[in-house]
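Good morning C.,

I know you're traveling, so I'll keep this short. The sequence:
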Amino acid sequence: MVIKVFLASSSGSTAIKKKQQDVVSFLDALKVDYTELDIACNEQNRMWMRQNVPEEKKPPNGIPLPPQIFNEESYCGDYDTFFDAKEDNAVYTFLGLPPPPGSKVGEEEGQAEGESGQADDEETEGDTPPAEEEDEEEAEGEEDHNEVTEDAVFTA
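The tokens, ready to paste straight into the viewer:
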């Protein structure tokens, strides 16, 4: 699977430049393999990108702006959907990639499985662990002692 990021190497818009840099930097940080495809210097890249962005995702003028992200031929999204996925910790899902082994996403799934196993074990052991039973008995004894002391104060 090849992630394709369509960029404009010579854009006059600082906003577009920042968005492109954000996408590329984040993919680099995640060590995701991707290919940058320049739409400013390559007419074929520009035409392919424009034809393959779904109609419902195109802006009112019909010309999608970079960055646009694809997984092979499948459209992933533009910067806004990438940003939302990044905020939701769902970039791998957004890109259509499995999370790498040892990633937080993989660890969370493993922990969820482990927690359900632990809950089953705890239910079979008994209602209250012995240490808690002793604490409850001591607390009851202290309450009885306090009652006796209060009665003694009132009778004296």
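Safe travels,
E.
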